TrEMBL record:
Biological source species: Alteromonas marina
CDD domains from the UniProt entry: AdoMet_MTases (cd02440)
Domain annotation Release factor glutamine methyltransferase N-terminal: ranges: 6-73
Claim: Iron-sulfur is one of the keywords in the record: no
Pfam families on file: MTS, PrmC_N
Gene3D superfamilies: DNA helicase RuvA subunit, C-terminal domain, Vaccinia Virus protein VP39
Gene name as annotated: prmC
Name of the protein this chain belongs to: Release factor glutamine methyltransferase
Residues noted as binding substrate in the record, renumbered to the chain: 186-189
EC number: 2.1.1.297
Amino acid sequence: MRINNALTWAAEQLEGGESPSIDAKVMLANILGKSQTYLFTWPDKTLDAAQKAQFEADVAKRKRGEPVAYIIGKRDFWTLSLFTSPDTLIPRPDTEVLVEQVLNWANQQSSASLSICDLGTGTGAIALALASELPEASVTGVDYQVGAVKLATRNAQANSIANAHFVQSDWFSALACQTFDIIVSNPPYIEESSPYLNEGDVRFEPKTALTSGSDGLDDIKHIINSAPQYLNKGALLVFEHGFDQGAAVNALLADAGFVDVKTVKDYGDNDRVTLGQWQ
Ligand code: GLN
């Protein structure tokens, strides 16, 4: 089977899915260990038997709905290539908005040696993006799932990031006596009964990383209530949240005594990130 034929066949197999042709290219480029440009440059190259078998197996998995990021075991986020596993959420492009907001804030501080905590770090995406951009900062990523802690540690090593480390912790439980200049979190925030959980890639992601009580706000409330004792004066607390939770998270932060609270939209023009500063 030649590359061009393989891609046409796969796109047909995946028809009706979200992005048949892109999925086919991403999976084939991964199997060949090449860039997507290579696929266009060498359409006549033939897949060997092992590559063909692997491609057929991957296409079958995708046809069953498995996320491409789990099938190929990686996903790009920010400037980084991250390993993924079904232990954690797949990094989303919208989460880069949170990273941008934190970098804007960090660049306005007088000190560059900031201490940063990422709660519910998953693949380590946020922690590692911040650590890579802020080489003088020291980043602690925590996750309740041991599998996530191992994965994030592996991602730090694979991206040669030395100023981030990861620990197992139930939110703040393992962080006694530590204080931070920035606490960030992309916690679970989807309503438990949301029909969205039965759609597309999210069906394959861990529920514990997605849902948080009937209104999706249980974990955000817990973090806001606990955060002050872990924050330095003037420190930043930032959340990613649901498109319809901006006003609620704003109010929760303001009620807890945070100031300069603001909500920022994602690339789809939805409220997605809310920030507040501790006094
Ligand atoms: N943003 C994710 C989604 O919409 C949800 C992530 C989360 O709950 N933290 O699928």
